[in-house]
Amino acid sequence: MALSLPVITLRPRKARPFFAGHPWVFAGSIARGGDDVPPGTEVRVVSHEGQFVGRGLVNPAGAIRVRLYQWHDAPLDQAFWRSRIAEAVRLRREVLRIDGPRRLVFSEGDRLSGLTVDQYDRWLVVQITSRALYEHREVLLDALVDEVHPTGVIVRGERSIAKREGLDIVPGLARGDAPDGPVQVWEHGLRWEVDLTAGQKTGCYLDQRDNRLAVASYATGRRMLDLHCYTGGFSLTGLRHGQAAETLGIDASAKAIESARRNAERNGLAAATFEVDDVLTRLERLRANGERFGLVVVDPPKFARDAAGLDDALNGYTRLNRAALGVLEPHGVLATCSCSGLVDRGLFLAMLGRVEELSGRNIQVLEQRGQAADHPVAASCLETDYLKCVIARVG
Predict the structure, then answer these.
(1) What residues act catalytically?
(2) Contact call for residues 53 and 45 (beta carbons, < 8 A)
């Protein structure tokens, strides 16, 4: 059976990362094979010498030509996909035991490259970012339904990734019934509304769950500024669990700010203020008016989407963090984040060093944090270690 599959042969000296379990086989690593088969076709990948490496799914039009899922010469059949889904769900149920919204499947972190699944109450939100894997969506959706028994499953897409993959996703309800409106969930004793159909990403930034609580511990008695606040996660957690004096959240999305205000109201946190504005413009105005804050949170969207944009991204982080220091009081706390996987921890810390040089203010790193545990890092794919959250004291 294995011999009947299309074979992808790697170039000389290109097999080592894949023997070690890395799932992304880029076009530049391939010597021959895979050009004349439909997207989603199962293939065997072998080294230049013909040694078996793994089995995966091919996308002839993608930069990632093959995504590997199996490092044994066994089929990627229905039983395989079901076992891999069950393994991911078991981690959350039996090991992590997360109470509340959670990430059920974290793509490469769960050896399911291209598949992300979040659970909000009785609903699942699925994002498929691989053209090849999308061809197998029905068996994946069936496995999720059988494993979790949700009321409904909603499929979401991300336009930029879909374009790169040649992926035409029709977003919407894929199984069961849709919620009547935003779903209400609990996190750290706070009640949130989550828009499963139109919110950013899969509806909420679950990867920052633990960081919201960690940052709150520095908020006591401080005036807090929450930049790119989305629906108010850091602000409201800082008020409830850190006893911040007051918070101001800024975001360019009017819809997100409306949701943040409703979240503040439903949790009885009147000291939270949320306003629609461009973050850099608002920072300049705050600085000019002499406003100062004891805790500033910087949590922007992804700045680097490809390697060509890395320098621009680092310049963007430098500019934003330097502006944030312009409104941070002496000996205040800066909590600054990056979800750009291409900006690794070393680059991010070096960026803060540049901010220290430009601002003339000493930055002492107190904590270096990452994503929540339901976003596990694969030791064989360090790109899964994407979220940086640095908490620092600024002199």
Answers:
(1) 339
(2) yes
Instruction: For residue range 206-241, list pLDDT tens digits in order.
Output: 999 999 999 999 999 999 999 999 999 999 999 999
Name the residue with tokens 């409904």. Answer: 152
Spatial contact of 292 and 329, defined as CB atoms under 8 Å apart:
yes
DSSP 8-state symbol, 378: B
Look at residue 1 and tell me whether its pLDDT is greater than 50.
no
Tell me which residue of 175, 177, 179, 106 sits closest to 138, measured CA to CA: 175
Strands 115-120 and 102-106: antiparallel
Contact between residue 138 and residue 82 where contact means Cβ atoms under 8 Å apart: no
Q: How confident is the model at residue 204 (pLDDT cuts 50, 70, 90)?
A: confident
CA 13 to chain centre: 32
Residue that has been written with the tokens 């039983």 in this structure? 79
Order of strands, edge to edge, in the sheet holding 115-120?
102-106, 115-120, 123-128, 152-156, 172-176
β-bridge partners, 389:
337, 369
- Sorting pLDDT into bands at 50, 70 and 90, what band is 315? very high
CB 235 within 8 A of CB 247: yes
Q: What is the pTM of this model?
A: 0.92
Residues 133, 137, 143, 145, Cα dihedral to 10°: 140
The one-character DSSP state at 197 is T
Cα separation, 145 vs 160, whole angstroms: 28
